[in-house]
Design a protein that fits this description.
MetI-like fold; MetI-like; 324 residues; mainly alpha
Length: 324
Amino acid sequence: MTTPAPVADPAGSTPQSEPPAATRRPRRPRRTKLPYWLIIPAVSTLLIGLGYPVTWQIINSFKEYGLAQQFGQPAEFIGLQNYASLLTDTVFWTIAARSVAFMALTALITMAIGIAFALLMKAIPTWSRIVLQVAMLLAWSMPIVAQMTVANWLIDDRNGVFNYMLSWIPGLDMVGHNWLVEPLSFFGVAMTIIVWASVPFVAFSVYAGLTQVSDEVLEAAQLDGAGRFQTLRLIIMPIIRPVLVILLLLQLIWDLRVFAQIQLLQDFGAAGERYDLLGTYIYGLGIGQGQFGMASAAAMVVLVLTLAVSWGYVRSMLKEDKES
């Protein structure tokens, strides 16, 4: 049996075979510059809002301010002397270590309580969940000055409700006790106020993440014999891990820069500046003592510390973006 000859092209050309698909060059996706144009307003606003203050702080950190500058004399440029004096000061390192410990403990407690409230909102009926959400929303929206006023009314050493209720315990007389004198009780009160105001944000955010967990995944885990704790640890937590990471990062940054609560507690109590954190320490250097150069240098150190805290998350984001 003979193979039929190929039909000749009318133009007289010989037939050619198609090139194999593997040798074809894939078309590159057409890149558009629209995303870059869309982020220009946000980047411009950020540069305008932060560029001038940060530049002003950096320049002032290399200058020395004293009594002469209050009468119009220009500040003297002293180079890195402010940084050298600051980084060799044991008081600064003590306050920095105290601030880092306060930041870590407060953020972890806030995350633990917030996750617990989120799981509670997921488990309870609708009407009770709405009541709980409204209560937490009111606590979260309360201004800091109002929070501190209520806290001062609760822990006042003469007419405080907390001391009065503790005195009901037989053999315990807490009337007249000042909670703002000892360092542990001072920072315990500050931590309680900050955690109380921060838990609603964490709870709402985690609850929103929990609502995105598929019911089919949970049912499959239940059919495989996984208990509630195993389901939470091995399935739910890995799914909402991105939400937990960004919440923990935000809490660390916010708790490192805490200022108003500590400053107002210092005004309420008799300890004064003995229980400074980095925020109140910088405020005392600049506004209280007029050492704007040292205060600017301390602010730059806090900025570097904040970037170090957030660098882990930024690196993970860049890694995920590169893999995708």
